[in-house]
User: Fold this.
Amino acid sequence: MTFAAIIMMVIAVLGTSCTKTQTEPAEPGTAMVTLHLGINTDETNDTTYNGGSMTQWENVPSGTIVKFVVNSMDLQENPNTTYAYDKLTYDGTVDASGDVMVTLPAIATPLSVEVKFPDLELEVRRERLNTLTGNNEVITETEIFTKLDASISVWDGAVIIQEHNY
Assistant:
């Protein structure tokens, strides 16, 4: 009798236990981001045709690497708050025209992407007055340019084009 009761309890437990259905997260779509990066490395050309002052931006050197950071939690429609999601990093390389283009994962809901700009050590052309001769002369000095991180919003199918200057 006890054995029969135990068997019936095991059958009851097995019959009423539930299994959790595993669902695969949806594959994200993509967004295309193009940034044009300018920097003022030639201050001698910062004038307009009538002599007014106006910054003329040169292109950031080709080969410069810009990092794009996406929190993978933002790629989930219903994220699990107890899960430690990864930060996904994508590198973009500046081309000869000063543009960096990168394809990033995105979903229908807009998400924030952090853009990290590197510090650049470059030669800068400047004009200064030579106090001995009384004439202006062009000099070249090395300068470190820094740019704060930026945040851009992307979504599935977006084509983002922005200009950023150091």
Notes: The CA atoms of residues 42 and 125 lie 5 Å apart.
